[in-house]
Amino acid sequence: MAESRTIGVFGAGWVGLVTGGCLAELGHKVIVRDVVPDRVAALQAGRLPFHEPDLPEVLARNSGRIRYTLDADELAGADVLFICVQTPPTYSGDADLSYVWSALDDLPRAERRQLLVMKSTVPVGTGEKVRAALEARSLANVGYVSNPEFLAEGTAVRDFMNPDRIVIGAFAPEDAAFVESLYVGIETPVVQTDVASAEMIKLAANAFLSTRISFINEIANVCELVGADVESVAQGVGLDHRLGPHFFRAGVGWGGSCFGKDVSALKQLAGNSGYHFQLLAAVIEVNELQKRRVIAKLEKHLGRLRGKTIAVLGLAFKPNTDDLRDAPSLVIASRLLAEGAVVRTWDPVADARERLQGATQCDNILETVRGADAAVIVTEWNELRDLASEQVREEMARPLIIDGRNLLDPQATRLAGFAYEGVGRPTSPFEALPEVAEREGAAKPPVRVSGPVEGVRGNREVPPARN
Ligand code: UDX
What we know:
The chain is built from 16 helices and 16 strands. By secondary structure, the protein is α/β, with parallel strands linked by helices.
């Protein structure tokens, strides 16, 4: 058990609440401060403003050790102040640090030395800037440590309590040791380093994870052209202990609040420092194209999408979260709407009604697929595993499933009477439904073109003829 400390947390967002809740679980006293009155009031009433498994239980179990406030001065007695505010991307792709600076503006005047611990993902060099800002404000008595989070949505509590590593970057070794002592009880390697390297570890980790996914997505796209199966390829490659199996699932592209933001921030940081990070530019572009490939797959079977009804199944950027930030579903549904399709959407928790004006969000899967010309699996929710059922087939106008997450078994889906297209799985151009093929001329083998697609370059398949 760690020696109990008093910990202040700036920001009652997702990172702040997971961090605060888990530090309380480790035995510390936690005061979470946010600037949004409604949010603080909701938390005080025991309501969580977002969906994160296990977090409500952790917060409830430790309610005696956590309190929420609007008043930063209540943090004056804390030993440590965790900064857990957002760092969204600016128009230039840099990270917007304005929330970090306003947290610094609100730092309480403490009698004794306090330690500022940066959990938010920030550009390399931020620690130095914060240190200079603290000195300029005569707050030289405040120490600074970078302690990035590696929490994934949906598993954040588990990731916090059982991390692969804890990274601590400090200017002074005693500050690093102090932060390490807060985590006593968690068995994991601790990487103690300088502040800039800790900042870089976080950005590089997310950039590499995104790179792996863009890589396997490109392999999948080539698999489609040459008749290989990306599922077997990923398994065969991932068993190499030097490569490993994780983050190697092909799909409709990565999304979420971190990958896009952090990859851009790292690319921009390199650019600002005079280095063109070519690989990351490709990683981003591949991801943009990957989302749009769904449209070409639909066109292959249905011809023009104008007036066709498409069921978009799954909206959250991944299962077990209601988060729509950078979700591939938004790009896919918007493209369908732009093509003139009738878009019906479903998600068990995410609500995209405001963001997808023009689409109809339905309450259940059957209602969504009713009368649909195709169903597209965008998020691999468990509820979609049984999609290839007789009931669904009967509800759909045409039994066509585009499986953007390779969730279903292709053979079983075909045997159940559906036309099926996965990602990077062998697919026959002659799979278009016979009546569609006849009417739309869509069953001929696709022609491959390269050239600009909506502002991004790359290859895509297009149907040879349109009426
Ligand atoms: C990520 C990092 O995993 C986490 O360490 C960091 O702190 C924040 O960013 P998160 O955004 O919650 O976490 O989601 P993650 O589980 O990493 O998935 C990101 C995206 O990649 C999702 O859209 C997911 O569907 C996609 N993905 C993931 C794939 O397409 N293929 C994979 O193999 C893995």
